[in-house]
User: Which sequence fits this backbone?
């Protein structure tokens, strides 16, 4: 009997530990009034400029979508942030986005011109991500939050933006 109780206790502890390490359906509630804490200093690091040279703007597009723009003359860090009700809803949105990219890849001017297909993943980055040559953007989902980086256009710089943003969650 004691052995059974001990084994059950160990099983419960492992289960609780797994939930702590791998939270199912993490729901983030970032303060989007200031772009979830992503600042002009963060953008400045990516652009190689001091924070004082960067102007920040956060714009609410609708109830669940924001645009974050950081500008310094003709240089920009621009990304959108979508907040879904749940991680499952955000994952479904990402799947629909990938399907739309695959459809777009079959049309002119993309047909037969995308060397790696409509989209690819960059590991490890968020829970899932999508890089596409269709519109040269990087989308990254973490829990219920999806960030899509539009500027700068270089893939490596977009990865830096996404990584810096995810650290704020």
Assistant:
């Amino acid at each position: 009997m004691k052995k059974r109780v001990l084994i059950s206790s160990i099983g419960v502890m492992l289960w609780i530990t797994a939930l702590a390490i791998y939270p199912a359906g993490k729901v983030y509630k970032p303060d989007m009034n200031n772009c979830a804490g992503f600042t002009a200093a963060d953008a400045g690091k990516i652009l190689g400029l001091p924070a004082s040279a960067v102007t920040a703007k956060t714009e609410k597009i609708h109830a669940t979508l924001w645009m974050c723009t950081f500008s310094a003359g003709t240089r920009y860090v621009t990304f959108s942030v979508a907040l879904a009700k749940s991680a499952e809803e955000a994952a479904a949105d990402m799947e629909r986005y990938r399907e739309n990219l695959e459809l777009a890849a079959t049309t002119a001017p993309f047909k037969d011109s995308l060397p790696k297909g409509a989209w690819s993943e960059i590991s490890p980055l968020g829970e899932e991500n999508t890089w596409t040559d269709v519109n040269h953007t990087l989308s990254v989902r973490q829990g219920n939050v999806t960030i899509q980086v539009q500027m700068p256009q270089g893939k490596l710089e977009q990865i830096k933006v996404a990584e810096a943003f995810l650290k704020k969650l």
